Each structure stands twice: as C-alpha cells, then as structure tokens.
Amino acid sequence: MSQPKGTVVLAYSGGLDTSCILVWLKEQGYDVVAYLANIGQKEDFEAARKKALALGAKKVYIEDVSKEFVEEFIWPAVQANALYEDRYLLGTALARPCIARKLVEIAQREGAQYVAHGATGKGNDQVRFELTCYALCPNIKVIAPWRLPQFYQRFPGRRELMDYAKKHGIPVPVTPQTPWSMDENLMHISYEAGILENPKVIDHGRPAGMAATGLRASRVPVKVTNAGDGATHCSTLELFTYLNDIAGKHGVGRIDIVENRFVGMKSRGIYETPAGTILYHAHLDIEAFTMDREVRKIKQGLALKFSELVYNGFWHSPECEFLRQCIGRSQEAVVGTVRLSVFKGQVYILGRESPRSLYNEELV
C-alpha cells in the first residue's frame, strides 16, 4: 500500500471497471469517496452502495438528479433543436456535465483535491468530465486511470480486470458478457464497442406499433396528453418518462450512426432516444409555426454551434453559456400545441395551433 495521498471522489457506476478502479485507487494510497448519480438508468442503487462500501469506499453518495438533468440540460437542448452531425440527439453528452458538476460539489464538500472517472482514453467522456471539472473548479486534479501507463499496462484487457477482481474479492457479473457496452440515462440508451466496432455488423431493431399523442409547449414542454385515453402528464419527469415509455414501445428514436469523436477518430454508435425524438420533432414544428423567418435562420446556425460544443464537452464554457442565453431568448414566442402520432418507428405531425402563430390562413 502506498503512502496516503488524500481524498478522491470517484464517478462510480458499480460495474467492473469502476469497482476495480476504486480498489486500485486505494492501493495507490487514496481515500475514495464513491459518487453515483441517478439520471434515469435502471440500477440497483442500494446494491451499488453496499458494494462500494465493501470494497473500501470511505463514503458513498447516491443522488437522484433526474429532475435537474431534464430541466437544466435536456430542455435547453430541446429548445436548440440540438443535433450533432445531423442525427445524434446528444444523450450521453448532456448527461456527463450534469454528473461532473455533482462530482465537483462532492469534492468541495469533502475537501477532496482529486476526482476520478473510468472513461477510456479513446472516447469523448474523458473530455466531457474533465472540462466540466476544470471549468467549475480550476484547482481540482483529475485522475484518469485509463490514461495512466501504470494502470492500462497492468490491465490491457477484460481478462486482467476479471483476474484482479477475483483476487480482491470484487463481485463479477455471473451472466455472459454482452457483445457491446451500454450506457443508459433518461435521454437515451447507447450501444457501442465490442462487435459493433465492425461497421458491417447488423443490429436488429425492435418491433414497432402505433400511438397518438398531443404535446402542448410553452418554450419548454409543459404538458402531454394521450389522445386515446385523455391521460395528461405535466411534471417534467412524468412527461419525459411517459414519452420514453410510449415512444420506446413503438421503436421511435433508434438510430445506427458513425460519428466523429472529439479525439479525432470515427466511432459507431447505436442510440435509442424515444422521448427526445418526439420532442425534437414537436418543437421543430411549433418553432417553424411561430418564429420569424430571419430569426430562425440565425437560430439554426447557433444550434449547430451549440450542438458541437455540447458534444465536445464545453457545456460550462462561456461560449456555450452565451449560446444558451441567445437560444432561450429566441423561444419567447414559441408557444402552442402539436398533435402527432408514432407509427413503426416514425413520428408524424398531425396538426398544430398557437396563440403566437405567424401563419395566416387568409393569405394561403
């Protein structure tokens, strides 16, 4: 065991990688505080808490940040019609600054000099975590084990991690390893790596069905009503969860894309973004109905830059804050109701109305 080095707050998921990182950090002489954010993923949080404590975490923080994730991160993206490289609705990119902000808060509360994460050296998440941490607390020090030679040379593959886990009493999955990695939050589920690194491998989609929904929006969505049974959902979480459920059942928002990562390489990702896809189409429609043409042209350019900044981890940068303010100002007249249906993975706009409409029936 190394000499004591202070306290580190670890972004902990309960999975194999971050569990091994927790034990490894302790080996290096750190006191580890584990932080697990609930952003809508299906997780046994109490089991994760017990696991982290059993592995030697000094403290474990588990916080439900779903509401602020929707209101402070997803809603601005909906307002912007944010779309990276024409297709990606930024589900993971929006979640990372939300989690990293909490990491910094816990570090400051605990008097910790360090934060740590389990993101790899090839992906975008390392950048998203670290830029947020440095923006909010310039003096914080980030430990990224997968970029440290003493870590990645010791653990060149999953087999070495499994051996380390068994040696140190870290519970390992008893189910067969999935042939890809998965990340889940309220906004989306992503599937990457493994067999999906071969761009020719076919991903088989889910069955689709049919439903009808009415969405009433005032700058951000405030109410959704099922046209079939009249059920209305108003709170941000309730609304988003309902749309995820109904659209997910019907295959809405599933895409298979190749994207350009911040680090310069191309990667393949398969994403399921049900609620986000419905909100994107509904907001796009009511915005076209209510917004001045020239303002909308400018706003579209801002949205492209905003999407790029969010994807690359610059949520807390001055330029991204400026864009959020500009985009928010553009939404003052974007008020109305959009009626739509979902059918076999597609979103169909059926009609719209707004007290701020710029559409004139007498002129058409």
Describe this structure in words.
This protein has helices at 16-27, 45-54, 66-80, 91-110, 125-136, 149-152, 158-167, 236-249, 274-290, 293-311, 318-330; strands at 6-11, 30-38, 59-64, 114-116, 141-143, 181-184, 189-192, 210-218, 220-226, 232-233, 254-260, 266-272, 335-343, 346-353. α3 crosses α4 (91-110) and α10 (293-311) runs antiparallel to α11 (318-330). It has 2 domains: 6-177, Rossmann fold (3-Layer(aba) Sandwich); 183-291 and 333-363, Alpha-Beta Complex (Argininosuccinate synthetase, chain A, domain 2), CATH 3.90.1260. It has 364 residues and is α/β, with parallel strands linked by helices. The protein has a 5-stranded parallel β-sheet, sandwiched between helices. Strands 10-9-8-13-14 form a 5-stranded antiparallel β-sheet, covered by helices on one side. The model is unreliable at 204-211 (pLDDT under 50).
Question: Quick summary of this structure?
Answer:
It comes from Grus americana. The chain is an alpha/beta fold and 364 residues long.
CATH superfamily of the largest domain: HUPs
How many beta strands in the DSSP annotation? 14
* Proportion of residues in extended strands: 15-25%
The CATH architecture of the largest domain would be 3-Layer(aba) Sandwich
Domain Arginosuccinate synthase C-terminal: 220-364
EC number: 6.3.4.5
Subunit structure: Homotetramer.
Pathway: Nitrogen metabolism; urea cycle; (N(omega)-L-arginino)succinate from L-aspartate and L-citrulline: step 1/1; Amino-acid biosynthesis; L-arginine biosynthesis; L-arginine from L-ornithine and carbamoyl phosphate: step 2/3
